[in-house]
Amino acid sequence: MRARPAGEARTVRGRGARRAPSGRHRRAARGLGVVLVALGALLPRPLAGQSGLEGMAAAVQRAVAAQDLDALRGRLSTAGVLVHVHGQSHAGLAPHQAVAALRDFFRAHEVGTFRPGRVVDSGGEPRRGFAEVEWDTVVRGTSEAVRYRLFTGFAFREDRWWVDELRVLPANGSSR
């Protein structure tokens, strides 16, 4: 320890005192920045026009086909989502509630195969669009094959398309 000349103040570090970041902390902060940039690349981009609706519909269909409800959640309207499953409708759901309503339904079915249908920008004010897809699947634990038609409604707000309606309807007239 070196001797201090007389009259030199001693610096005391107590609680709340700030130090310059160490090399380790600078590297961690830089790494966090890289992670945040990478996560930002995964977020849905603002999409405009018909091709934007088609791109959003394709992304939603991929998420549903993979039963990746976390990927779907970021595309759901925070203004409220209507979910219709098993003949029951729930309107005005927050994204996490809409995902919860769909989770049990998807857990009861195998992944199956999806056939994308039409995607339509129906215009209007506010601007609306929809997409359809047919889903052939099997009820888990059985050999019962079922076919559903998934109807997705979109609203164009804040310069992008948002999912504000998800309906799972029997495609073959069954009660499921």
List keywords for this structure.
176 residues; alpha+beta; six-stranded mixed beta sheet; 32% strand; single chain; globular
Instruction: Give a count of the beta strands, DSSP E runs of length 2 or more.
Output: 6
Number of helices: 4
- Sheet of most strands: 6 strands, mixed
Mean of residue pLDDT?
Answer: 78
Topology:
Elements: H1 23-42, H2 49-65, H3 69-73, E1 81-85, E2 88-93, H4 95-107, E3 113-123, E4 128-138, E5 145-157, E6 160-170
Parallel strand pairs: 1-6
Antiparallel strand pairs: 1-2, 3-4, 4-5, 5-6
Structural notes for this entry:
The structure is a single chain. It contains 4 helices and 6 strands. The chain has 176 residues and is of the alpha+beta class. It has a 6-stranded mixed beta sheet with strand order 2-1-6-5-4-3, covered by helices on one side. The longest helix is centred in the first third of the chain and has 20 residues. The protein is globular, with a radius of gyration of 25 Å. The protein starts with 22 loop residues before the first helix and ends in a 6-residue tail after the last strand.
